[in-house]
Amino acid sequence: MKFKALFCFEKAEDRVGLTLAKAYLAEVSALECKATGLEDNFFSAYNKACDLFLEAGWILKAVECQKAMGKTEAAASMYLYHLSLLLAGQKLIDSCRYLCRK
Prior knowledge:
The chain is mostly helical. It has 5 helices and no strands. It has one domain (about 5-100). It is flat and about 60 Å long. It starts with a helix and ends with a helix.
């Protein structure tokens, strides 16, 4: 049942949707591993989920994955890095708007 979403996104050629579906499946797998005490698999699955969320551009979900693994410094660094990119992008947009007014 849970692979139905993968099939649908693949058939629709929705790359982002497919990546997100894979990310959520990896996250669920990580939680299942944690519940059953499979710590190595837990970290592996959460790392995979984090990478997939980043690939899809879902930064906050990737940060959540880092936090769930106890990697608070990595989560903070990831968040601040992407926040700085957003702020730089906003400054560029503001500059373009200013120049277009002249």
